[in-house]
């Protein structure tokens, strides 16, 4: 439970951090809140030789909302996401999700950037970002590029981010309408047995926008395009909810672990998703 | 008249004695972070030890190369079995009459086993050096299922004793078999099982779990080579026993060893035994001549130090058609892991499992326990219980439910019908115990009324109907439990640990100004001894509890005692405290009589003073007497006011309780929610109701953990699957339900103050109550029994197997 040896660096600006990372290369990792990285270093699963701490970079910690767009700096903590009233108005599903992550102590440290960059299928923010159709801004030696959350996750701990890039910001459109983040877990501080993010916009009796994504049911978060379309095109009723759930369930590939066998997770996931859809629709 | 009566009351209240909800005196330091735990001990020049542990569950150790580790700057030594062998310390005796490798001697037998001990200047260097020790293993077939231990293709685990057909507890029939322990009348019980009108049978598994105290295990050894003294600080629930064992093992004379248990952050049985870390820190300090600290981390604690339970209990219970129990039969397969390191009194290899007739008048019974070796960590300790009482209580409280199903009878009624009646005490059980006192019917009826049992059953029936009609996906379970414990080990004639009788002790010194110091052979790990023992004494000697210091845990100062576990502190050391207090009072009476110039028999004790009979204005307070004992020459009486008592209890004590849990269960997700938990405890005389309530809350929460998710699980290769707190369930305040506590008070007739002990009752009774609630919820759908832990997926699976998912 003691990490290997490493050098600690604390740059004070983003360009400085990017330059350091370019210079140190593969042997270096950035550290944000440290609440995924440090546990894996203590288990010596990760043994970086250099840690580049982003805590000193003020420009990475902010929440801006203008012109219908939300921009969140990568170093904004989960506690700050929960506390922001402006963010709650623009995207209430963020608070709902963040409140179901870990416990307050972890949320004071853990950042949104670390949560989405980590690539652990157990993290809750990645599916949420896919549900919001967010964009991730990456800064590398060759400058800035933007990758869609829906195209970012490749496999467990593998993402579209290059080793030399730093995720600086997350951008997405303000969302109106119904929302729900449903999560089944064993206890406080646990990752999801199954979780679902749902956004539904009501237009009269029709559903003008639907977006569904799932957490910890495959080796990446899952955006459920077909299931979303079913609700958006066909409306939200018992029959379509069942069809959307069936479609989403065809996508998942949960694995057996201490939370239970895959067979159970499939069942639990279908219940969690169906009730998240109902909750979101009731709020729409 | 009334004025005097009131002042007696006032004086009594000022003592803060028995029955007072006195605030815990320990908490001032604990809540301010001023506790002093083993890891807080820092000595000049101290080195740090860390273990190289086996990643394999069963393997031959072909070679260990320590050279790279030794090259790392700051590494002082790397010990292996070869280094310990010349000292004969590569193996050590266990409390259960077996022996255990201190460091891997030729092979490893469980994942996490200690292979080499690295000693370095700080713990960071030690951790790095651990990675540099190269161990060459040859993997061997792994045995995880105790039911496969005696198959012809089973690997032989303990090659060291493979040819020994006789173990510490009798005959061994196979190299992987440790002992068979039998109690009761087999022939008569088996005859009843054949002939009885109704026989219910079930395999009840109490899964492997772990005490997981907040503070892990550790020690600091300091060998002073100049004066030959060894001081050992450690997480010891029984410091005197550790001193004796350390002396026997090391050859250092016992007077040259001082063992100190400082503040202990929870024990729950985990800190009763002796671990390789303690031995290695001692050896390393002897070798290096400087203090050596060893403190394990959480994963080491969970995967290598003593586990609890792991009993496969096959039961049969026979009854008449109208529910009078005729007999109980139990065969238990006990998975002990790689070494038999249970912490039981010597004569009880399965602890007090033979209390498994529970609260019931069962005329005939038979119990057999087979201890088996597997490739798992050793242990089998009493996790917040008295030597397998939890297993016994769980077994009988499940069997009662199983029988109720078979009889199609209400389980509360079945219990009431079979309780040992008040007038039957002292009651001789079929498996050999003498229950001291009890009034089960009163407690039971009080509990049923408090929760409106009839109303709950009606609501449950309605909910079953609604479920069947498709109106709800939730079910309701009512978990009943009436447990009887056996605690306070114990009478020296049949209870010993490594030959040391299980008495306990108290030594009291009254200071001239009338305050006091009392030292005991026990050691608090959070139970609040400094608070409650002062209260016992306050009532006995009339000095306010606030003016009594309680000290424990330093073998150089405390009288010899067997330590704290098995709810034995109050029954045994608490009794010693009262008895020592009475000796003080007896001497005080002589002094008072002299001072009052009357005959000893002409004065009587009143709260805090001796009063001349018939002349209430003539008295001497204990404070006055204390002063006199030091400054006056009293003919025929030695100066000073001190006493010591070593108490050998005549019997165990038998606390009991009635618990009822109401649970709501979501059939689809397997998520359950405790709606209500009512806990009535009868622990005899109540010393401090507030502490009792705290103990009950804590014990119930541990019971919740065990019943609902906490386990040490292994895969088929013997890998520990639950080695961190992410997977090993420790409830937070969020998961913890509200508890409604209650009591009846049936004193123990043989204990000086009638107290029975309570610290473990809630764990013993809580687990069956939670588990019975889950089981009960599915009774209407044909379930007889489902095993713990009742986590989401297992509850889901139960529902799924019953066809409740359509
Ligand atoms: C007990 C416990 C329970 C938890 N439960 C949950 C839970 O229920 N749900 C959940 O979602 N999470 C959970 N977590 C994880 C927690 O939310 C982490 O804080 C989060 O996953 C990572 O954020 P961080 O800021 O701590 O990142 P770090 O741990 O510092 O970093 C994580 C990874 O991301 C990389 N990284 C970080 N920031 C950047 C960046 N800006 N650019 C590029 N790479 C970056 C790091 O190099 C590292 O590889 C839990 C953690 C703990 C300790």
Structural class of chain A: alpha+beta
Q: Low-confidence stretches of chain B at least 5 residues in length (pLDDT < 50)?
A: none
Percent of residues in helices of chain B comes to 25-40%
Report mean pLDDT of chain B, rounded to a whole number: 96
How many structural domains of chain A? 3
Number of strands of chain A: 14
Largest sheet data of chain A: 5 strands, antiparallel
Q: Could you name the CATH class of the largest domain in chain B?
A: Alpha Beta
In CATH terms, what is the fold-level topology of the largest domain in chain B? Aldehyde Oxidoreductase, domain 4
Tell me what you see in this structure.
The complex is a heterodimer of chains A (284) and B (806). Chain A is of the alpha+beta class. Chain A contains eleven helices and 14 strands. Chain A folds into three domains: 7-52, Uridine Diphospho-n-acetylenolpyruvylglucosamine Reductase, domain 2, CATH 3.30.43; 63-172, Uridine Diphospho-n-acetylenolpyruvylglucosamine Reductase, domain 3; 181-283, Enolase-like, domain 1. The relative contact order of chain A is 0.12. The longest helix of chain B has 28 residues, at 569-596. At the A-B interface, helix 11 of A face helix 5 and helix 19 of B. Flavin-adenine dinucleotide is lined by residues 29-37, 39, 54, 74, 101-102, 106, 109-111, 113-115, 117-118, 123-125, 166-167, 189, 191 of chain A.
